[in-house]
Write a structure and sequence with these properties.
Strand order of the largest sheet: 5-6-3-8-9
Structural class: mainly beta
Order of helices and strands: EEEEEEEEEEE
Helix content: under 10%
Shape: globular
């Protein structure tokens, strides 16, 4: 039997002057070829930083992922899924989802990078950006999940995250 090494990574950058933040998660990682799965995009505006005048959320899908559907007013064009969110007051949190399918021809070890951007629409404000790397593997021997609290983020306050690891290979 042959062995394949598959890895997954998440980069989180906190900008002390940003008014908005976002993250991407999926209950499935790695993904199997030809299988649909859902990406969850959490976004919000920091309490005490004025929020966002007019938020726009975009998700760029790499080749190898086929768009199936988006939540709310989300629409896809040319591999980019977009939502016009409108004003985001400080302390606001929201969630959008995108259901996609990994291509049937993807090989084990392929890494798919999904990038999300949240533009607050405020002049001079930085755009929040994050990338989720999803490995392709037909079996899921180890499941690692990261979840964030749904409580609004408050400046200089603690945010709670939970990491769960499960051996799903049966050995």
């Amino acid at each position: 039997s042959s062995q394949s090494d598959v890895s997954d990574s998440v980069d989180v950058t906190v900008d002390p002057v940003a008014s908005v933040a976002l993250g991407i998660a999926s209950a499935v990682s790695p993904v199997a070829p030809n299988e649909p799965f859902t990406l969850r995009i959490n976004y919000g505006a920091f309490e005490g930083r004025g929020g966002a005048d007019f938020g726009e959320l975009t998700i760029s899908l790499p080749s190898g992922l086929q768009f199936i559907e988006a939540s709310g007013s989300g629409s896809e064009s040319g591999g980019v899924v977009s939502w016009t969110l409108g004003p985001l007051p400080g302390g606001f949190n929201g969630v959008e989802t995108v259901t996609v399918q990994a291509g049937a021809g993807l090989t084990t070890g392929t890494l798919l990078d999904v990038t999300a951007n949240l533009d607050p629409g405020n002049t001079g404000e930085p755009v929040a950006r994050t990338t989720w790397t999803i490995p392709v593997h037909p079996a899921e021997p180890l499941l690692v999940t990261l979840s964030a609290s749904d409580v609004p983020t408050v400046r200089n306050e603690r945010s709670d995250f939970a990491i769960s690891v499960s051996n799903t290979s049966g050995s």
